[in-house]
Every structure is written in structure tokens, then in C-alpha cells.
């Protein structure tokens, strides 16, 4: 019970941090190219992760952990940031965060495939209901039309779900913050090289808001959030804690309203209540 409670608390902290990722990315892409933004955030976080690992004298991963770490890096260090950055050039922050509601299903499915978890059938029922609530909300708000940005967000959700599940399985051996740190360090040479190649000639036209967005996604989205998130998944289970992601779209929409001036409707609050119920029910049948 203590491990489950601690897992939920850590998982919720991670979700709260990640909820600001897409609004912050939306701000960042107003001043930075998506490729530059992706490699810059990875390089900044990678340098900090390397310093942290060296300062705390962490043992290097075993050779058998390198391929799973590469999967984590491709999913959450490269794939999700790059795909969402391109998506947010063409869709609004509100539209994009709704797709994040599909992450619990993606994480749970990859958790079954990669982590060996076997949630009960009712878990899938309530998980599906929660996702349907989000889909219904999207359709009701006019967010359901297919576009290039939507397809990019769907792809981002899939690669992120894989990275989450793979990282959670690894964190049971390496530790939560160590997983994301080693994944960042593993990708650091490539990210640093691309950063040099993609460096703009001038940053004169970049607004303070864009710089703030870059700082947030580099420090919080890319590193600090994962410290809490992977620890939570390892303590409470991939399927159970993963359901907390159902709350992320609505936290993200709230931040989008505060930061970007988007409307937070009463319908969003009503649907959030339903989603919270689905999260609670899915948790009960996750194991």
C-alpha cells in the first residue's frame, strides 16, 4: 500500500510537470525551429544529466540495458519532442493536449508487451471509457478533424507510450531518474552535433516567451518530470499509475488558458470529473 501510494504521488507530480510541456512548446516554436528546439532541449537536459550522474557516482548501465535505453531515448528524448514541435506549428495548444489523453492506453499496451503486466479486463473497459470521454470532448469542441498536426500528435503519443513503458521497466533495475539521465546521456553526442549544425545565425528575434518555453521543456519536461514519473511507474505499476495521464489534457488546457489566453469551458470541468472517476476505477482493476 505504501509503495502504491508513493507511486501515485510521484506519478501525479510527473503528470503536473508534463502538463505544461505542450503549452511551453507552443510558446517555444514561435521563436525556434522544431529541429533546433528538439536538439537544444535534449542537449541542455543531457548536459545536466551527465553532471548529475558524475556527481553522484552512478554505476554505468549494463550492456544489456543499452538497447532499452536507446528505445527510451528515441521515444521521449527525440520522437515525442520533435513530433509535437512540428504539430504545434499547425495546431493550437488546446487541440494538441487533448491527444495526450490517449497516452494511458498506449502506455498500458506497451506495458503489457514490454513490461509483462497483465491488467484485468475491467481495466481496459474503464481505460477505454476515459479515452472515449476525451475523444467526445474533442469532437464537441470541434477538435476532431483530421489534419497533419493531428497525425503528428497520434504518432507522438505512440512513441511516447513506448518510451514510458520501456523506461518504467528499466527503472526497476536502474532507478527512475537514472533511466532518463542515461537515455539523455546516450543521445547527447548526436544531439550536440545536430545542435551545432542547426544553430541559427541570430537569436535577435526570439521573444522572452519563446526562451521561457525552451527553458521549461529543457529542465522540467525533459529531466525533472521524468524523475518523478518513472519512479511513480516503477512503484505503483505501469498500468495503474499510467492512468493518471488521463488528467494531463485538462491540466494542460488549464495552463493553456492561463498562459495563452484560451478559454477553459464548464464542459471541460464536467468531463474532467468523469475522467477522474475512470482513473479511480481503472486503478482498482490494474493488477
TrEMBL record:
Pfam families: EamA. Residues 6-130, 148-276 form the EamA domain. The chain crosses the membrane at residues 7-29, 35-54, 66-88, 94-113, 122-139, 151-170, 179-199, 211-230, 237-261, 267-286. Keywords: Membrane, Transmembrane, Transmembrane helix. It comes from the Bacteria. It is a multi-pass membrane protein. The keyword Metal-binding does not apply. It is found in: Membrane. InterPro entries: AA-Vitamin_Transporters, EamA_dom, EmrE-like. One of its GO terms (cellular component) is membrane. Belongs to the EamA transporter family. This is DMT family transporter.
Amino acid at each position: 500500500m505504501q509503495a502504491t501510494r508513493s507511486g501515485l504521488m510521484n506519478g501525479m507530480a510527473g503528470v503536473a510537470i508534463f502538463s505544461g510541456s505542450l503549452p511551453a512548446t507552443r510558446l517555444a516554436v514561435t521563436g525556434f525551429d522544431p529541429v533546433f528546439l528538439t536538439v537544444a532541449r535534449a542537449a541542455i537536459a543531457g548536459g545536466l544529466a551527465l553532471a548529475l550522474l558524475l556527481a553522484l557516482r552512478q554505476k554505468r548501465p549494463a550492456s544489456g540495458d543499452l538497447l532499452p535505453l536507446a528505445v527510451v531515448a528515441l521515444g521521449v528524448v527525440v520522437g515525442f519532442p520533435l513530433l509535437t514541435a512540428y504539430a504545434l506549428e499547425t495546431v493550437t495548444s488546446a487541440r494538441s493536449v487533448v491527444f495526450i489523453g490517449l497516452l494511458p492506453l498506449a502506455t498500458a499496451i506497451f506495458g503489457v508487451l514490454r513490461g509483462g503486466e497483465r491488467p484485468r479486463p475491467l481495466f481496459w473497459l474503464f481505460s477505454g471509457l476515459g479515452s472515449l470521454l476525451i475523444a467526445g470532448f474533442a469532437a464537441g469542441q470541434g477538435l476532431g478533424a483530421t489534419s497533419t498536426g493531428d497525425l503528428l500528435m497520434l504518432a507522438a503519443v505512440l512513441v511516447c507510450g513506448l518510451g514510458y513503458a520501456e523506461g518504467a521497466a528499466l527503472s526497476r533495475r536502474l532507478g527512475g531518474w537514472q533511466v532518463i539521465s542515461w537515455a539523455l546521456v546516450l543521445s547527447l553526442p548526436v544531439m550536440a552535433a545536430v545542435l551545432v549544425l542547426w544553430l541559427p545565425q541570430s537569436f535577435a528575434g526570439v521573444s522572452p516567451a519563446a526562451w521561457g518555453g525552451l527553458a521549461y521543456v529543457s529542465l522540467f519536461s525533459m529531466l525533472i518530470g521524468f524523475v518523478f514519473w518513472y519512479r511513480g511507474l516503477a512503484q505503483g505499476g505501469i498500468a495503474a499509475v499510467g492512468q493518471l495521464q488521463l488528467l494531463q489534457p485538462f491540466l494542460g488546457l488549464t495552463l493553456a488558458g492561463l498562459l495563452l489566453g484560451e478559454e477553459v469551458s464548464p464542459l471541460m470541468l464536467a468531463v474532467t470529473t468523469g475522467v477522474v472517476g475512470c482513473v479511480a476505477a481503472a486503478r482498482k482493476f490494474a493488477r
